[in-house]
Fold this sequence. Notes:
The protein is mostly helical. About 75% of the residues lie in helices and about 0% in strands. It is built from 20 helices and no strands. The model has no long low-confidence stretch (mean pLDDT about 85).
Amino acid sequence: MTGDNCGGASRHRRQRLFYEACIPALLLTLLACRYGVPPSSNSTVLCAVALALSLSSLVIRLVWSSKDSIQPHVYRPGADDGAVWGSLLVPISVLATSVGAEAGMEAIRLHPAIVLSLGMSATFTAHYQWSRIGKTALYAEASCFIWMLWLACTVAVGYAGKSAFGDAFGLTQAIAVLLIVSAAQHMWRNEILRSLPRSFTMGEAAVFAQGLTLVAVDFAIQIGYRLRSDESDSAYWESNMHVLCLEAVVLGLWMAGSVLARVMATGVLGKRARRGIPGLTVLGSVLGGFGVLALALVSYISQINPVRWILATAFGSAAHIAVLAYWVALLAVAGAIYAVAQGDVSESTKFMLHVKRKSYHVLAALMFVPGWVYARPLLYMSFAVAAAGFVVAECMRALDLGPCSTSIDGFMRRFIDYRDAGPVVTAHFYLLLGCALPVWLGHDSVASLAGVLSLGVADTAASLVGMKLGRARWPGTTKTVEGTVAFCLSLLAAIGVVLRLKGDVGVGWYWYAQVSVVVGVLEAWTEQNDNLVVPLCMYALMQALS
């Protein structure tokens, strides 16, 4: 490639990444404005902080060159650093959920999450900018400006968050909480990157660290609420049992995976022992121990037996039983088709491998849309169960535990791509999280199906049409314009089908068309994992325009 071509490609990439950064920046601004109506002192301050973060994200893309990850041995290769998404995606998701929440306990519970997400975002943005300015002549002046801006944002968020942390909290205590939480998310982000090198960009790791921090803080708040109250509010806990169980599963899986990785790193088990009974014993002991601890905590906090609640959710109605039977039948048919397809080695071309990868996206749509329409509580719980199963399978594969580890590894490696450069295979996790997060965050609106529709339908259509019919490529990418058109049209059609199933016919087509176009362009432009970024942005955009 000539120097002119390299310069042109680099220029196109910088422009594309800047335009991409405009999408979350404008989305956060829009959500903050909606959150600030009706206006109050707290909401106005939070809107100002959100606007400052949006402008800072654009500065990131204007000032810095958006090169590939600056530490290729740490970050996922083949992508920009994702700093804009690491700064804005979590506040966008939390604000979108707050916009759709009804007044009352749910809205009150979300206020600390908004405050903490903006505080963590400000800290991440300031630290990133400070780390990139370099030892230039303006190093001292730029550092002073960056940290003064961070201090202003932190104090402003602390002022708005005084009421979020309890009546006994003043401004100093609120700022102290923000600093502790920001330090925790920074520590967890570094731990994720250290333990799983080349698996995430900086932004992706920041999103997971911030999300994990919010889950841990909310779970701690629920424990504190239980300790302060003599009697359990049965109606409140019954309505929030699904959130409590989900948080316990997330934290339990994170701690169990960390303990297993550290135990295996000591070399206490040899290769043969890992794949035999000792390996299974260690796996079962760690997972079982954290599982019992999670159930005990949920039972103590809510005063509800979690096992009975899970069984009642799964089998408590005819609709849930019918959906479970449908899922079993669908998985059986999909398994049979996969077994037959595996026997035809002559079809193992790049396109057929792509078809096999995207078939799981279609399977997700076929499973989850009926579940959302007819058995939403069951779908909510099933996502958590599936996530636990994926974590267990990946622990067995990555740590070579149990007699099935080799078979699991062989199955997973058939579907990896350039994004699976680290020690863990992330493709199936991203697909599950992309479908699950809008459902977990959302309410009764179609926005909660953003992941299922964008990944299960639109992404599949875009990928297959782009590979077979695509001719015109977006500058600086491998994505095609034809694929993007297929994404937008198929997404709009899928939304129409869901609206008809739900009974909402003829509402909001102009807005849904706008959402389809914005999300389709984002899918074509982003270098982050689109299974994470696209569903959450579509969810937030639908909530903002609802």
